[in-house]
Structure formats: C-alpha cells, structure tokens
Amino acid sequence: PTEAVDLLDDIVATLALDLKVQVVMIAGNHDSGKRLAFGSRFFDRSRLHVCSAVVPGTVRLADEWGPVDFMLLPYADTETVRLELNAENPTDADATIRRRRDAWMPPGAGGNRTVALAHAFLAGGQPSESERPLSVGGTGAVATGNFEGFQYAAMGHLHRPQLIDGGRLAYSGSLMKYSFDEAGQDKGFYFVDMDGAGTLRQEFLPLRPRRDVRVVTGRFQDLMAGAAGGSPDDYLSFVLLDEAPVIQAIQRLRTLYPKTMEISYRYQQEALALAPAQRPDRSSRSALELFESFAEWSTQKPLTPSQREIMTKLLTDAVGDGGGE
C-alpha cells in the first residue's frame, strides 16, 4: 500500500538525511528487488545503501576501531541464482545461499570485521503462521554454518524475534503483529554494539504500538460486561467458552470492541484437535446420524426426541427415504 511506502520514505529520510546515520537495507521475498534497487547508486552517496542483486553487495563502513564489511544477501530464488551466476541449478535454499556467499567471499578471504545481512529461514528458527514459505516442503531451511566467519548476521524473514547460535545470528522479527499466532510475541528490534575484536553486546528494545493484537478467552456475557481487559480498540480474536453458539456474537461484540476480527468456540477447537483415529467414520452413516453428530458437536448437547422427530420428517420430505444417504 502507498501508506507503507510513504512511511518507509519518512523513516529513511529521517535516519539518513536528518540524523546522518548510515542505513543498509536488502530486499525480502515480499519485495520487488528491481524496483527497490532503482536509484541505489545515487542513494549510496546519501548514506542509504540498498541491495537486491543476486551477487551479494558489499558496504564498507568504519568505526573507531577500523573498517567493517557488510555482506548484503537479499532474497533470491534458486532459478534466478542459476541464471545470473551461470551455475548448476542449486538443489535447495541452503545450496542457493552457499553459492551466493561463495561469490562474495572466497574461502580464506577476510581481515576486516564482517557482518551479514541476509533474508533466509535459518535451520532451528521458530516460524509464525504469517510468514510466506520460501519453498515447498523442507527444502527452505538454511544451515547456520553458511555464516561462519561473520562476527554477526542480521537475518530477515521470521517474524518472531530470536537469537541463534548464542546471539551471533539474530532475527529482530517484524515490527508489528501480523497474525493472532503472533499475539504473545514481544515486538521490537535488537540494538547491537560491536567492539574492535568483534565482541557483541545486544539489547532488545521493545515497541509498543497504539493498538495491540490479542487473543481473549471467556464467556460471552462476561466479555460483554468488559472482561476482555486492555484497550477495547485493540485487534481482538475471541475464544468463547459458551457450550452453544451465541446468536450474532461477533456483531454484538463489535458494539463494545469495534476491532473484533474473529471469534471461535473452545469446544469446537477441542473437537477439531482430535487425532484422525479418534474421529468417527462418516462413510457409512445416514443423513440423520450425520446431522445428529453435527448438532451435538455444535451445541455439546444431543438432540431431544422432539428435535429428532422433526429432523426425521424434514429428511423424509427431502430425500424420501427416512433419512438415508
């Protein structure tokens, strides 16, 4: 959305132009790398370093102890890597990263302190449900050994902030919560200080958005009495403990909590969580039996004799066989 582009422009301008801070950024799997790289050679002269190329870019900055080389490793799929590096087709994401890293830093090269910026799913990382998979099946994981030799690797892709390999590799995660799976995560970023020997000092700085993303559990009447806590303007997912569906529950909740996004029922979640072996075989059951099972699952109560009689008549009128297939 254009609002996101405007926000990025404001942030980058404040950092690079107003505060005179060097900004280094790479393309992720949601970005159009070519578009993001437009004007990058001009931006380099204004403290903004952007890389979206297959061959990793290099930015050399300096501090009081000397130069630091940044390897910029944006997202690229295996086919693009094969075409642009004239290489044999990498078999998976790990081979892709390794091939690109070797194109930047041949074995044995070094001397300066080095930092990697990379977009990848590291083996051992903890994903959330809102990340877009980087590949099909289990071929998307990248070994942490690909970043041996770097004093630090700032990783992108996973939304959950986390440290890997003792903190030498880190995901700051997303700045905002993008799904209810992330409701329990603390969002923010890592402030990293590196001395002349490459020793790191890290501090996680949390961010507190205007509106939180929360999952709230309770009975409908209690929630309507204000039991959700927090701000009523948060983005909310309600898990209702009621034993039967509540009529127009989400519409009524929105009168008190206007940003209610979804509701579910605990008893339905528990039923869906049953292992396949525990679920009833429906292949040989009549229409009436299936309806009885559905009604009991929905309300946690069996049909009464009168309800069963009514449903039998309806099915007889509909299919003419007294509730058969």
Tell me about this structure.
The chain is an alpha/beta fold. The protein has three domains: 2-206, Purple Acid Phosphatase, chain A, domain 2 (4-Layer Sandwich), CATH 3.60.21.10; 213-271, no CATH class; 280-319, no CATH class. 29% of the residues lie in helices and 24% in strands. It is built from ten helices and 15 strands. The protein has helices at 2-18, 33-36, 40-43, 78-85, 93-104, 220-224, 249-256, 266-272, 287-299, 305-319, and strands at residues 23-26, 48-51, 57-63, 66-73, 113-119, 121-122, 141-142, 152-156, 162-164, 169-171, 188-194, 200-206, 213-218, 235-240, 260-265. The strands form five sheets. The protein has a six-stranded mixed β-sheet with strand order 3-4-5-8-10-9, with helices on one face. A three-stranded parallel β-sheet has the order 13-14-15. It has a two-stranded parallel sheet with strand order 1-2. Strand 11 (188-194) and strand 12 form a beta hairpin. The two termini are 50 Å apart.
